[in-house]
Automatic annotation (TrEMBL), chain A:
Biological source species: Amycolatopsis viridis
Ranges of residues in domain LUD: 73-285
Organism ancestry: Bacteria, Bacillati, Actinomycetota, Actinomycetes, Pseudonocardiales
Keywords: 4Fe-4S, Electron transport, Iron, Iron-sulfur, Metal-binding, Repeat, Transport
Highest taxon of source: Bacteria
Domain 4Fe-4S ferredoxin-type: 312-382
Protein name: L-lactate dehydrogenase complex protein LldF
PROSITE patterns with a match to the protein in the record: 4FE4S_FER_1
Classification via Pfam families: Fer4_8, LUD_dom
UniProtKB/TrEMBL annotation, chain B:
Domain of life assignment: Bacteria
Annotated protein name in UniProt: L-lactate dehydrogenase complex protein LldE
Cited Pfam families: CCG (PF02754)
Domain Cysteine-rich: 3-83, 134-218
Amino acid sequence: MSGTFVGMPAFPAAAREALSDAQLRRNLAHATSTIRAKRAAVVGEVDEWEELRLAGAAIKDNVLHHLDEHLLRLERSLTERGATVHWARDAAEACEIVASIARQHDADEVVKVKSMATQEIGLNEALAAHGITAWETDLAELIVQLGDDLPSHILVPAIHRNRAEIREIFRERMAAAGRPAPENLSDVPRELAAAARLHLREKFLRAKVAVSGANFAIAETGTLVVVESEGNGRMCLTLPEVLVSVVGIEKILPAWSDLDVFLQLLPRSSTGERMNPYTSMWSGGTEGQEAHVVLLDNGRTRALADEVGRQALRCIRCSACLNVCPVYERTGGHAYGSVYPGPIGAILNPLLRGVGVDEQTDSLPYASSLCGACFEVCPVRIDIPEVLVHLRSQVVDAHRAGPPKGEAVAMKSAAWVLSGARRLSWAERGMGVAGRVLNRLGRKVMPGGRRALGRLPWPGSLWSNARDVPAPPAESFRARWRREGRR
Amino acid sequence: MRVAVQVTCINDAMFPDTGEAVFTLLRRLGVAADFPAAQTCCAQPMVNTGYLDEAVPVVRNFVDAFAGYDAIVTPSGSCAGSVRHQHAMVARRSGDDRLAEAVAQTSPKVYELTEFLVDVLGVTDVGAYFPHRVTYHPTCHSLRMLGVGDRPLRLLRAVRGIDLVELPAANECCGFGGTFAVKNAETSTAMGADKARHVLGTGAEVLVAGDNSCLLHIGGLLSRQRTGVRVMHLAEVLARTEDA
């Protein structure tokens, strides 16, 4: 279980590696196009989808604008119903809290419900350092864990694997983690699932402590909600004596009735289903069970302070944006260097961590062509392209003090040329002269009759390595207009 | 109505025929449009790369150049989107209230070409003639930032002689994305290669779109792969008649 995102290269380098993996690209293209079609079909059935999106965004905005009040109310409701509430400012604090609860119960292992928050804080690794083994029980999470791998998708963490690869992982790794894979295991999905079920059942029945996240936390009633497909979550939530839930502070819904909106938005957007198979809700400790709730900040208040960026905290982790993103589809999730990949990861990571800190984080706002497909499908209307551009400006501003990069020099010069027509005119005249020369030298004629330039030196090579460039015209539009004296 | 054409910096410098086509088309439809010579660029290259301070003088130049017009027509979904959605942000950043006011005056008057033709002039048949097999790529910003919908297709369907064929996965980004094309060059070309493959599959002679920037990218790939497929701006197709 050694996978870690720490020290990942910046997006362009990581993407380059992923792009050269033909198997990965095939796996991803197949999976994302399937789920994209499913989502489109079930969203298309809902006439008032846009109203639901607006309602979802409004409820979350209200939560964010009065987060302090909602949090205190949630704490009160949870405490009244017998849960113990802990507050964690960062990953280290949150991990320490979970570890100390496990230690108090002499547990050397815990079972886990799939949870983005606990992945975000690196809980499994932190528990391992305390001698406590954390077992993932979600099928895809199990595949990632057994494979010493990293998740590459919010909803389907093993989306980059096909079933032949999964069969190999089970055959080679299950025995060391508990019940071994059956002899003669094939790569038929049903057999793979059955093998995982047998392997996991031992762990559900043995574990004293379980760790979960929550999809929603209802301030009014102190209810935590977990939405899932496999039933493993419900096993974890109900069987062990102690349940620790790590919940991001933005997960709040003010009232029970708000679930109405989100239980329509979430399943359709994430799995492309009208309703998910299992929805578990619990308020405080149930009979015979000790309940702990860790309310996690870990950069969320930093994101909240960003006026444009705070809308990212509306995110309900549905992963619809990943499945429609043309960049994600080709590079996969690992290229984003975080448990939050894809368009939402490209904004959430810089918002949680802050820009100007490391190259990898600063590369993420640029990992998008700004095509806007993510915004179109987002169930809570996060304007991801807007936030991307906003964060790019923060990245640029964070580096203004240091020595100027080539890009900054190019942008400043371009802006200087483009802030006055006369300057642009001169620049175009220069291009025109070059164009006349290059037109003679250019050997290749592009369809339509224009000559193409050859391969350009760096940085032009970044363009011309794969794409022909038409030679500039001898005369710009404005020059022709002026020469012909049209007005 | 005083109408101006924003020729856009890339059209001005690299694709002057597109600017020419817009004027030809508008003249044929009875619109005498101006080319305000003070215009340069919408500032999108700076804004989308994060250089907001640098964008300020460019935006200021834009609002000065187009002040006093009732409509500003541009053959670019991307630039129209940039004006409508980003100029206010740049003005806010500058802290200059007069600039913000000027932006608020100018931005709503900017129309992407097909919006102007269909919504303002109320025409879908512009009297064009183009007897070729054509496929159309809706560029992301025209599709999602502006929501031009089927306006370009309605205009194309009315072109005489045209054989318009549907492009598979048309709504998917071609991978251009401004500086994305060089900052993430490999990802950009991987996206573009899939787009080029779809275009080739249609058997079209010409790929048409409403943004020359995207066409520069897709056309560059199509040319490098020696496919023989030509790219053309929508305005140039609509400007063609049996005489020219």
